[in-house]
Write a structure and sequence with these properties.
- With 327 residues, the chain is mainly α.
- The chain has one domain.
- Helix content is 78%, strand content 1%.
- The protein contains 15 helices and 2 strands.
- A two-stranded antiparallel sheet has the order 1-2.
Length: 327
């Protein structure tokens, strides 16, 4: 009996740490998610609270738990999306899709339920630990939303893109939500500082939203053959390639305008000169990606643009490193 349990535990450990599983859960994206939440907490919110000797709701352990919840739910979302997309991925990524080729569908379902369970359990423990009952529904609602996206929303033009972009923005917003009590105290201590911080947080989340929308539209352009064969009605399929490109250019314009507005609109925030270097890392690749989009036709062209879009997102999400939350 004990030997059987030990063998089962060893099997689970090997499975989770298998390189196929790491690829399945998009480990680079999970690293970015964790980075965003840690940067917002340690570089923006916590220093602002500390300046006025306010006690945050999350200590290091609680912040780690919140991050664990987010990562588990995101990993489960990637897995269920790949399960639903077996047919489309076989056409769009014949040598790169995992479920149905390098991993059985039943194993993928097992991993989906495992990550969901860990996320639910961690969210429940965190909610009671920080005495915020509203956090109990965090994991189930997020998990249900990702399931709805995989099964239904992604099949309609723009709806799936908006859901994904909202989740990316929410990755940052959940940290702010968890620290809302300390933020209210900050507003009482210094309304101007809290207002500037609020502008920054909303702007940061807005940039995450539009940058993700830009990449999602490019990915839809890249995946047209498989999406059409699978019955998906993405924007390029329904409205045409030109319309999808125009909307992507519109998102790019919003990224550039939003970045400038964020830098100019937070007058109470102190920025280091290195922020201008970060701005170049965001805006120059954005211009180049837009130029590539003009002549892009084949899936390989859109794949290259998607890589640049991912770089733009990553560079933009580093913004809290270059912002000093004090006066």
């Amino acid at each position: 009996m004990a030997i059987g349990r030990q063998n089962c535990t060893e099997y689970m450990a090997r499975l989770v740490f298998n390189t196929v599983v790491f690829s399945l859960v998009r480990w680079p994206n999970l690293v970015i998610v964790a980075l965003v939440q840690m940067l917002l907490y340690y570089c923006t919110l916590r220093p602002a609270f500390g300046q006025y000797h306010l006690e945050p709701s999350l200590d290091d352990l609680r912040m780690t738990l919140l991050c664990l919840v987010t990562l588990c739910i995101a990993a489960a979302g990637y897995i269920i999306n790949d399960i639903v997309d077996v047919q489309a991925d076989a056409l769009n990524r014949p040598t790169r899709h995992l479920v149905g080729r390098r991993m059985s569908i039943s194993t993928a379902y097992w991993l989906y339920f495992m990550f969901s369970l860990v996320g639910f359990t961690a969210a429940l423990y965190l909610a009671f630990y920080v005495r915020q009952i509203s956090l109990i529904g965090l994991a189930p609602l997020a998990s249900a939303g990702l399931l709805w996206y995989s099964v239904y929303a992604k099949r309609l033009p723009l709806l799936g893109n908006i859901v994904v972009a909202s989740y990316c923005a929410g990755t940052a917003g959940i940290v702010w939500f968890a620290e809302r009590h300390a933020f209210y105290q900050l507003a009482e201590a210094n309304a101007a500082h809290a207002s500037a911080l609020r502008v920054f947080l909303w702007g940061y989340m807005g940039l995450a939203f539009v940058a993700t929308m830009f990449r999602e539209l490019v990915k839809d352009l890249e995946d047209q053959p498989g999406d059409a064969a699978s019955g998906l009605h993405t924007l390029p399929i329904v409205a045409g390639v030109h319309v999808a490109k125009c909307l992507a250019w519109g998102m790019a314009a919003l990224i550039a305008g939003g970045w400038g507005w964020l830098l100019l609109g937070c007058g109470a925030m102190s920025y280091s000169w290195s922020l201008w270097g970060l701005s170049a890392l965001v805006l120059l690749p954005l211009v180049y990606a837009c130029w590539l989009l003009v002549k892009a036709q084949a899936a390989s062209d859109f794949k290259q643009i998607s890589r640049w879009a991912k770089w733009i997102i990553l560079a933009g999400l580093l913004l809290p490193l270059f912002v000093q939350p004090g006066f």
